[in-house]
Specification:
Largest sheet: 9 strands, mixed
Strand order of the largest sheet: 14-13-12-11-7-10-9-8-15
Number of domains: 2
CATH superfamily of the largest domain: Dihydrodipicolinate Reductase, domain 2
Structural class: alpha/beta
CATH class of the largest domain: Alpha Beta
CATH topology of the largest domain: Dihydrodipicolinate Reductase, domain 2
Order of helices and strands: EHEEHEHEHEHEHEEEEEEHEHHE
CATH architecture of the largest domain: 2-Layer Sandwich
Number of helices: 9
């Protein structure tokens, strides 16, 4: 069997990285690209540059990567589904839950692989952390807290920070804990003069009892991407900017002082920075998408999972707007 023929639509900041990575993945052949505004980063080379999704589809695609602005995910995705093209859509799956549901229905009814680009799942630090949590290295998990902040990206104009950045943390938290959200509450603010929120602090609870905390904004002069998982035996800290994973072990000290020994607290123990093989997350994501299309394995973030993440994001926005806790259906 020859290489899978790949089309890429959307040649902005994320699209240019996809263009490079697709060319680097075995078994994929980038055959055409599309963007109504041209090729600002010069990634097409000698390949055909199309002005629309219909022109792109005409190049007999096996699969496509959709990296257009969020508000266009539905129209582009539905066109690709109708044409029978397996598609990876950049996160979030769509700008509204209703649009996301239509994408899920279109791909599932056509028997196509529909995936969402929640790339943090493919970060080496988080992949290692998931394996260690499954193995019981932390014992019972109590809390997952994330911090994701940095300067405002002028390229994002159609959604706020919750649906853009916050969906990373929603997805990775439910994935690490292997449990969906049961409720959320939040506060947001708009400080940059836009019509969408640019700062959010959200808390929640998963169905398995794990509590969550998410600090996300576009208003910090430093860039930070941290996930802290606290549990029975200590805490793991994953830095997804550097793909580093560190384990902070609870210390255990025997005492004969009855009043102290009756108090079940924790103390500082050994700190271990874990050695990891660091593969580029984008390449790993594209390899997983390729394997799903080939039927070899299915480690993608499915469109249905992406839809569930978007539901939580909209619940966070609603919670902030109504100053309430929003429950999520099981």
């Amino acid at each position: 069997m020859g290489d899978l023929r790949v089309g890429l639509i959307g040649l902005g900041m994320m699209g240019r990285h996809h263009a490079r990575a697709i060319r680097e993945v075995d078994g994929l052949e980038l055959v055409a690209l599309a963007d109504a505004y041209g090729d600002p980063h010069g990634v097409a080379g000698d390949l055909p540059l199309c002005g629309s999704v219909d022109e792109l589809i005409a190049h007999r695609l096996d699969l496509a990567v959709c990296a257009v602005p969020t508000g266009l995910h539905e129209s582009v995705g539905l066109a690709l589904a109708e044409a029978g093209v397996h598609t990876l859509v950049e996160k979030p799956i769509a700008d509204t839950v209703e649009a996301g549901r239509r994408l899920v229905d279109a791909f599932e009814s056509a028997g196509l692989i529909g995936a969402v680009g929640h790339i943090e799942r493919f970060n080496p630090a988080l992949q290692s952390l998931r394996v260690r949590l499954e193995a019981g290295d932390l014992g019972d998990v109590y809390q997952i807290a994330t911090r994701r902040q940095g300067p405002f990206p002028a390229r994002i104009a159609d959604v706020g920070v919750v649906k853009d950045l916050g969906t990373h943390d929603i997805d990775l938290t439910a994935w690490l804990a292997q449990s969906p959200y049961s409720s959320v509450s939040a506060r947001t603010s708009m400080r940059s003069g836009r019509s969408h929120e640019d700062m959010v602090t959200a808390s929640g609870q998963l169905e398995n009892g794990v509590i969550t905390s998410h600090l996300v904004n576009w208003l910090s002069p430093m860039k930070e991407r941290l996930t802290v998982v606290t549990g029975e035996k200590g805490a793991f800290v994953a830095d997804t900017l550097t793909a580093d994973l560190t384990f902070y072990e609870n210390g255990t000290f025997a005492t004969e002082w009855e009043a102290v020994s009756n108090f079940r607290g924790v103390s500082e123990g050994n700190i271990t920075r874990l050695a990891l093989t660091k593969r580029e997350p984008l390449r790993s994501e594209l390899e997983a998408f390729r394997d799903a299309v080939l039927g070899v394995a299915d480690n993608t973030v499915t469109m249905r999972e992406g839809l569930n993440t978007l539901r939580v994001a909209e619940a966070i926005i609603e919670a902030a707007n109504t100053n309430s806790t929003i429950g999520l259906p099981a």
